[in-house]
UniProtKB/TrEMBL annotation:
A Pfam family the protein falls into: Acetyltransf_3
Highest taxon of the lineage: Bacteria
Alphabetized PROSITE patterns for the sequence: GNAT
Domain N-acetyltransferase: residue ranges: 8-152
Cross-referenced InterPro entries: Acyl_CoA_acyltransferase (IPR016181), GNAT_dom (IPR000182), N-acetyltransferase (IPR051531)
Stated name of the protein: N-acetyltransferase
Residues annotated as signal peptide: none
């Protein structure tokens, strides 16, 4: 399974995928990835509903990761999160990756809503979420909550 955009490849994160792709100099494997790899070994059906690697086609480097915080819940909702390395920021990669993953998730009948959250002062993330047509739904403490409902 792989998603292609104009400049990116999105590949579900596995140990094999991590070792077969060269990370950008400033990409570090975070604890969320290690935790996800462990969960994936216990439940292979998580593939696609966890971490995806964001790979720049031109350099074939991992420039970030994106994904969902689990399978769709009882309300047919998934939460998306993402991060792009500093050297690849402000180039539209996050928006490109988020759009691709939203399209993938909405291709499933059991996904009706995608939610996200970001710090209220995270201007870059706010711009990404606005560009993909997410709507602000709440401000809790210093976190802005977002949602995008599937059309139809």
């Amino acid at each position: 399974m792989e998603l292609q955009t104009e400049r990116l490849m999105l590949i579900p994160c596995t140990e094999e995928a991590l070792h077969s792709s060269a990370p950008a100099d400033d990409y570090e494997i975070g604890p969320h990835i290690s935790m996800y790899i462990t969960e994936l070994k216990e439940d292979p059906t998580l593939t696609g509903w966890g971490v995806w690697l964001v790979i720049e086609k031109q350099t074939r480097s991992i420039i970030g990761d994106i994904g969902f915080k689990g399978k769709p819940d009882a309300n047919h909702t998934v939460e998306i999160g993402y991060g792009i390395v500093p050297s690849a920021q402000n180039k539209g990669y996050a928006t490109e990756a988020v759009r691709a993953l939203i399209d993938w998730a909405f291709s499933f009948d059991h996904v009706k809503t995608i939610v996200a959250e970001c710090l209220e002062d995270n201007v870059a993330s706010i711009k990404v979420l606005e560009k993909v047509q997410m709507q602000r739904t709440a401000l809790e403490k210093n976190m802005v909550k977002w949602a995008l409902k599937k059309e139809g």
